[in-house]
Amino acid sequence: MIMIPLVCFSHSDYGDILRVQCDYLEPYRFPKYLCFNKNIEIHPFEKVLAYDDSKKYSKRLEQSLSQIEDEYILLFHDMDIVISMDEVKISKLVESMKQRGIDRIDLKNHDGEPGIVPYRTLHYQYNVNPSIWKRSSLLDVASRFDKCYRTIEDLDVQEYCMKFSICRLAHPKPIQSAFFQVTPWFLYMHITSVGKLIPEDNNAMCEDLKKVYSDILRTYTFTRPMKRALYGYD
pTM, whole model, 2 decimals? Predict the structure, then answer.
């Protein structure tokens, strides 16, 4: 099995969210790296890839990626809580990437025939969804642009990424997890929006994940307010 590192991008301002992520990541065998604005040890991460907090998002990412030697990584952000993951399936996806010369697989579920499907349009060639990346390709993007988190998906980035082989996943039995449909291979829960927790009720989750989210809210202490509605800024 290919031991691809799990690379979580975070910031000390999201320490309350990161605590949840840490507990959910602990059982997995894959190496775990943390992109963080402080060079401190945080369990269960084997490596902390410290970045300069004064830089914009893409340059922080570039700085962290430059500290990794692995050819492929699974990159996600602290607010995308990894509820469950099939490490064998993820390893097989990496094997497929090597065989087919794929630079990125978006791990959010998409409609279509089940399997690995190429992106055919300009829309979201690049996004911040949890993804398996060829590290050198992501480093190319991060070094090319000087963007904040809110602008890294701008049109100029999408156009630049058309040169890469970027694919998406389609699963026959997707799972509704708040904003996204996800797959059983990498089941994650995006628990914040505009810096706030998503609401406990009317959060567009399947019943099993609603219970998981309610348990998270009761187990952990958060420093941020909760949204009144899933969508919008309120």
Answer: 0.96
